[in-house]
Amino acid sequence: MHMDLVAALDIGGTKIAGALVDDRGRILLRAQRPTPAQEDGDTVMGAVEAVLDELAASPLWSGARAVGIGSAGPVDRLGGTVSPVNVPGWRGFPLVSRVRSHVGGLPVELVGDGVAMTAAEHWQGAARGHDNALCMVVSTGVGGGLILGGQLHPGPTGNAGHIGHISVDLDGDLCPCGARGCVERIASGPNIARRALSDGWRPGPDGDASAAAVARAARAGDRAAVASFERAAQALAAGIAATATLVEIDIAVIGGGVAKAGEVLFAPLRRALRDYATLSFVQRLEVAPASTGTDAGLVGAAAAALRMGARAGEAHPQAV
User: Fold this and answer.
1) Which H/E stretch holds residue 221?
2) Domain that holds residue 281
3) What is the reported pLDDT for 307?
4) What is the share, in percent, of the chain residues with pLDDT greater than 70?
5) What secondary structure letter does DSSP report for 245?
6) Which ranges of the chain does DSSP label H, i.e. alpha helix?
7) Mean pLDDT throughout 127-147?
8) Beta carbons within 8 Å of 82's beta carbon, 6+ residues apart
9) Are 162 and 218 within one domain?
10) Within a domain: residue 299?
11) Number of independent structural domains in the chain
12) What's the rounded Cα separation, in Å, for the pair 209 and 213?
């Protein structure tokens, strides 16, 4: 009988995934529903409840001690609310209280999806064994989270480490967040593609204009494609170096769809990092691809809930 289980939720604009996870990070049961992202808030909540109900129908549910939620943000960990940009029906939505009441009062821990990925990478992935780390998701947006002093550092609202909205170009393009020259405005997948197109790159016969297509073109030597990835790498390097200088991280882990470009991204990133991380205490900063894959959100949400339990003297994550 598995006694130290948590129910994990990974909530995004496309899908709501759920799992029962043990204290070694093993997923024992899964459930999933599409996110009705354009519907009203209660309809979206209904999909969350359907995932929880499917998990609760298992005999394993009796071992669940808490619920961990990693959600697209912004999130407010203190208020227990979420306002995902890509789920317009949820604005200040009281997700924690709604989930808690649905699961009979179990404790609920809420973090942003970047923080959840960070928890997963520190527990099971590339940041394992590092006491001070920045973990990033570079995809449609750019998010992240921090490990400081060996502990997940979500910050008061659950958004600490949101590197995508560090400004690295003071006179740069206006970002949807309201600032200029944000890392996300340069290094996210859509913005990599946008820059490549504006510089003359053209999609192939299939019409694929994604960052993945730009990466393929860069591997084949297309100058505009290479230049767009180099610019993205420079923005990421500036943001990573600023973070490392501020809090002395020793590794930056990068996941998300853009990281799948491999050396098209990582080679210029490591070169650019040498130009930005120049002080003696950040010169040995390591950069690595994430390794927890598509389960990072679930494993990280579980890790956040287990760490919450550890603070209360209950379950705690174990090494694999």
Assistant:
1) none
2) 126-291
3) 80
4) 95
5) H
6) 41-56, 95-102, 113-124, 183-187, 189-198, 211-219, 223-247, 263-276, 296-311
7) 94
8) 11, 71, 72, 73, 74, 75, 76, 90, 93, 95, 110
9) yes
10) no
11) 2
12) 6
